[in-house]
Amino acid sequence: MRVSGRRSLMLLIYLLSFVSAIGNPIVLPSLPFIMQDFQLSPLEMGMIISVYALPGVFIIPLYGMLSDRLGRRPLLFAALFLCGSGSLLCLAAPSFFWLLVGRALQGMSITPLEAMSNTLVSDIAQGQERLKFVTRVAVVQYFSIALTPVIVSWLLNFGSWRLGFLFAALLGFGSLVLCLPVDIPYRPSRSVDLKLYGRHLRELLSSSRVLSLFSVRLGSALLIFGAVYPHLPLFVDKGLHLPPKHTAMLFSLYAAGMFLGALLTQWCTARLAPRTIGFLGGAQLAVSMLLLLTATDLWQAAPALLLVGTGSGMLNSCCAGHVSLTATPDTRGSIMSAYSTMFRLGQSVAPLLFGLCYQAGSFNGLFGSGLALAVALTLAAMLSFAYADNMEHASSIKK
User: Fold this and answer.
1) Tens of pLDDT, residues 373-383
2) C-alpha distance from residue 145 to each of 17, 126, 128, 215, 292 (Å)
3) What Å distances lie between residue 291 and 82, 88, 109, CA to CA?
4) Could you tell me if 31 and 45 are in contact, meaning their C-beta atoms sit under 8 angstroms apart?
């Protein structure tokens, strides 16, 4: 029996938002232990992040297109089933190769869920209400990013790093069961001309409004998954000279910052100009990179990680809201999927790019490059948010 109603659908969307954010938090607290078990180099450790993100670059656009043409339900169920299956493979991985295969399967399944969550919001809300709900979805995602490493760190006390993947498998299969009775109102129309659909999609993806917002998403991903995610365990060990357990604590600060940043966005959008929000988010990232350049102990690194989180949380939440307002009814899934693809593209190449910066100049090269990118990202966010807001107001006046 199907459960219908807006309330049940919103609960489903929040559940998907939570699951969509577990991909890297599920593994980050365990990276030092995985590195030790499989005798990995820092570059190989970065592959655990990259191989998760890379499939999403190719899969997410396909998910978006098929969800517009075939409906949301079949794509949603396939993603949750693969999430559980890939996590089980990571749990049982006998070698580093099979761990990477399992992470790739996780990437094929978990990464499209972020776009799916925002697409479902776009199906049931319009205008400023949609902007509000997209921001709430981001809050749930960042809550997941904050909570998941705490759960994994707690599980590490009871056994190996593999228990984190058991948690991911249970979450994937459990979410699939909970989603079965929920009615999803979107009904695809196969009578829509594919040429018209393609024209709408091309017009949106080539517009300066969408491209400018995508550049913010890409730049944020490059910074977070280049300067922070893969190099945090190494920074704790070689830069701060602390035991591995402090990695999870610093990451939790970063994740808590993302949660706070998303919450602040709801307050800021009602009171501040979009250009100001772009400046505040980007400036926090720039200050955090400057602090990491000079950090020599835990007390200096902790506020830097918190600022990285709040800055990226503000930028990404605001950016997702503006992107959601660009889509036409028949391209919602495709646009939100393309938006998520920008993030996964940055996530895929960032560890390699910033790994080269680290090899060239150690932590000075790593965080110095991050500082330069953060300054550029601040300017991009200010300009793109202001431009998107002007276009939204112009569109509402025409209507």
Assistant:
1) 999 999 999 99
2) 10, 27, 26, 23, 21
3) 40, 39, 36
4) yes
DSSP summary character for residue 30:
G
In angstroms, how far is CA 346 from the centroid of its own chain? 11
Q: What is the largest CA-CA distance in the chain?
A: 63
Residue 251 scores a pLDDT above 50: yes
> How large is the angle between the packed helices 298-324 and 96-124, nearest 10 degrees?
50
DSSP labels for 226-270? IIITTTHHHIIIIIS---THHHHHHHHHHHHHHHHHHHHHHHHHH
pLDDT at residue 191, as a whole number: 45
- Answer whether 398's CB lies under 8 Å from 316's CB: no
Bridge partners of residue 3, in order along the sequence: 182
pLDDT tens per residue, range 92-143? 999 999 999 999 999 888 878 887 887 888 778 777 777 778 778 888 888 8
Give the closest residue to 104 by CA, choosing from 59, 65, 149.
59
Q: At residue 243, what are phi and psi to the nearest 5 degrees?
A: -70, 160
Kindly provide the b/e burial profile for residues 29-48, where b requires at least 16 CB atoms within 10 angstroms of the residue's own CB.
Answer: bbbbbbbeeeebebeebbbb
221 contacts: CB under 8 Å, gap ≥ 6? 342, 343, 344, 345, 346, 347, 350
Best CA proximity match to 46, nearest among 366, 384, 398, 383: 366
Domains and CATH numbers, the chain: 6-179+204-398 (1.20.1250.20)
pTM of the prediction? Answer: 0.74
Note the pLDDT tens digit of each residue in 176-234.
Answer: 998 888 887 766 655 445 565 566 667 766 788 888 998 999 999 999 989 987 788 78
Cβ distance 108 to 82 under 8 Å? yes
CA distance 252 to 150: 7
Side chain identity at residue 389, one-letter code: D
The Cα–Cα gap between 171 and 87 comes to 10
Alpha carbon distance 336, 61 (integer Å): 9
Cα-based angle 102, 33, 298 (whole degrees, multiple of 5): 120
DSSP H or E segment with residue 109? helix 96-124
**Angstrom distance (rounded) from CA 382 to CA 328:** 25
d(CA 27, CA 20): 14
